Amino acid sequence: MASRKLICLLDPKQWTLPDSLIQAGWRPCYLDSLDQARALINPQKPCVGIVLFDERWVNGLNQALEVLLQESAGCIEWVGLVNGERGQNDPACRLIARYCCDYHTLPVEPLRLAASLGHVDGMARLRRRSFLEEEVSPTEGTIVGESAAMRNVYRQIRKVALTDATVLLEGESGTGKELVAQAIHRGSLRSEGPFIAVNCGAIPINLIQSELFGHERGSFTGAHSRHKGHIETASGGTIFLDEIGDLHLEVQVNLLRFLQEKVITRVGGVKQIPVDVRVIAATNKNLIEEVQAERFREDLYYRLCILNLKLPPLRERREDIELLAHYYFRKYRSMATSKVQGFTPKAMKQMLAYDWPGNIRELKNRVQRALVMCEQRTLGPRDLNLEMHVGSQEVATLADARAETDLRVLLAALNSNGNNIMKTAKALGISRVTLYRMLDKYNVSVRPDSAQK
């Protein structure tokens, strides 16, 4: 079992990690000072930490502790421990609300803490992913994935970025080809130059020549001034030609000439203009088949395919689905009309079983739609519109039906009792311990400032 480091900012005489969590692979590192914790802050290796908000931190070193929590944001995902007697106005509550992913009252339930640490560790791994490959850190988009297939893609990106050769990206629609092109550009010597993306399939045939190569004034009706094309505009940088397989044969001839001679001629012009630009092309078609069908020039194919990267579809990297789902949930959470907390276990199960023909783009769109349409506190299969796709062939068991009913009743009770744990447990006729177990089971979190113990 893989060992996972757990920073424990507390005195082990006050509290120690339960044996069951140590057996589960957690390796506690007990620290007795803020300086010791600060020395472990490493943005390239985000990890999980536990901090005990006792009298020393809260009353004695409150400001110093907050500075540490601020400095470690994004590097250490904190879980707080507090005495159950503290009130809502206690300084510990403010620090927990601002800097902790979760919190527990003493004495801690090992099962609930194990679930909490597992969730927080997932967030730390997500942050760690962005540092797996230093060259791959898009600014306007993020390549998310830790699967073996994606690690191979990262290695290829790093190698390809160091050269200036033409690259052909192949993959189904929605697999993130433009993000990969951006990553290659940023890791190259041309990173300070422009990155121009062109969708070859979206430009009308009567305009594609002008859009790519530019035109001179008066070259056709409406050409009132000289116009630089996308290739010339990208000089010194990278041009990304998406859906290259949709390019008309007549334009393929001019593109081939440009790739061979590194010069262009504007529409209506005679002057040859040298252009220094790297070309990255992408397609969701099988260009070999297109060549055989005489819809794509063979000589152009080999000019484009000097370096070739194949991007895996989402169904071939299923271990990344949960990571992607949580990433887009956090990214678009502000779109939710209610305080949505996460996904139900059944929703995650169906996401993992679904084949995602639209790949990452489809997953992102489904999560966005679910956040807008959801009327509960967790996203279910119906919110993601997956019931018809996955559940139509499954017969719900009694356990599934009972779980769905339990979750609806739990959320309704929390809502009607203002998230007050004690009142909710009483209304449901269960103990607080049982209520906490239900919260863990259904991945429902209660905000610290609203949970009155």
TrEMBL record:
Per the database record, which ranges form the Sigma-54 factor interaction domain? 143-372
Could you cite one Gene Ontology molecular function of this protein?
A: sequence-specific DNA binding
The molecule here is called DNA-binding transcriptional response regulator, NtrC family, contains REC, AAA-type ATPase, and a Fis-type DNA-binding domains
Q: Which organism is it from?
A: Ferrimonas sediminum
Q: Which SMART domains match?
A: AAA
Gene3D superfamilies per the record?
1.10.8.60, Homeodomain-like (1.10.10.60), P-loop containing nucleotide triphosphate hydrolases (3.40.50.300)
Q: What is the lineage of its organism?
A: Bacteria, Pseudomonadati, Pseudomonadota, Gammaproteobacteria, Alteromonadales
Q: What's a GO biological-process term for it?
A: regulation of DNA-templated transcription
Top-level taxonomic group? Bacteria
**Protein keywords:** ATP-binding, DNA-binding, Nucleotide-binding, Transcription, Transcription regulation
Note whether Transcription occurs among the keywords: yes
